[in-house]
Amino acid sequence: MSQNKLSTSFDFIAVGKQVLAIEREGLAQLDQYINDDFHRSCEALFHCNGKVVVMGMGKSGHIGRKLAATFASTGTPAFFVHPGEASHGDLGMVSSQDIVIALSNSGESREVLALIPVLKRLRIPFIFMTGKPDSTMGKAAEIHLCVHVPEEACPLGLAPTASTTAALVMGDALAVALLRARGFTVADFALSHPGGELGRKLLLRVSDIMHNGKDIPLTSRSASLREALLEITRKNLGMTVICDAQNVIAGIFTDGDLRRVFDMGIDFNRARIADVMTPGGVRVAPDMLAVEALNLMQARNITSLLIAQGDYLIGVVHMHDMLRAGVI
């Protein structure tokens, strides 16, 4: 029965280091199993025309779920199916174009063994990953990946510890080998991670976050400086774009320019915006990546960019838009 009273001499650090040592040794032993069977597994997975279906019970199931997720996010379409549920209808998710990877440290998972005759009848290829090549699953496997470890970190030898670590690492080795064989790129990775930071940086374009239409602060060349300042205040972007009637860009006027005008002692009511604007303005194409636009803004020490097709204005993006979109 477990104790609730902690011995004053108990050394958590020593136990923790012992666990790491046992698991390191298990991984060191795993190197020998990156062999012809590993090569055959990678080839089969690479040439799979369907999806990789990962199965496993208990802790092996947890590792299997992670493996399926890693495959899916690195260019190998995959999903997890609980082997118990597979025997009660979920096997219908699996087609003859797919390939099954089943994990079991003992190699005697009854739920997986029950599926072997059906997988063979449906001509669905399968790879078994076990810690015992002589197990029932090991002998029945079309391809067997050994993940044997000398011992578990659990002193009782019961809780899967080193064995699940070995299975996890073998799965990572498969996924990364396939990633490299496919020539999977950072941009490919971003497409499967649109909600993450990388996805935002590699997929988001300035056209996705720019202000357009009536939200653009616009001033005509003939407007007074006072009228331009009112437009800056209304649109709250700290700037206005000076354009002609066809939205052809003439220049830009920002909060920074206003400070310069103050120093010049210009009459705000009589001065024309065309006389004090900065001609041109820094402009980019709408398909520019937001992160590239951010880099340009930082390099030029500006807070706004004009989005344009040639000289024709189609939008404005501000540093705050980058912040709201999570690019910064």
From TrEMBL:
Reaction equation(s) it catalyzes: D-arabinose 5-phosphate = D-ribulose 5-phosphate
Pathway it works in: Carbohydrate biosynthesis; 3-deoxy-D-manno-octulosonate biosynthesis; 3-deoxy-D-manno-octulosonate from D-ribulose 5-phosphate: step 1/3; Bacterial outer membrane biogenesis; lipopolysaccharide biosynthesis
UniProt cross-references to Pfam families, sorted A to Z: CBS, SIS
InterPro entries per the UniProt record, alphabetical: CBS_dom, CBS_dom_sf, GutQ/KpsF_isomerases, KdsD/KpsF-type, SIS_dom, SIS_dom_sf, SIS_Kpsf
EC number: 5.3.1.13
Annotated ranges, domain SIS: 41-184
Swiss-Prot/TrEMBL GO biological process terms: lipopolysaccharide biosynthetic process
SUPFAM superfamilies: SIS domain
Site (Catalytically relevant): 59, 111, 152, 193
Segments forming a coiled coil: none
Keywords associated with the record: CBS domain, Isomerase, Lipopolysaccharide biosynthesis, Metal-binding, Repeat, Zinc
Entry binding sites for Zn(2+): 82
Molecular-function GO term, any one: metal ion binding
Domain CBS: 210-268, 277-328
Subunit structure: Homotetramer.
Similarity field: Belongs to the SIS family. GutQ/KpsF subfamily.
Name of the protein in its database record: Arabinose 5-phosphate isomerase
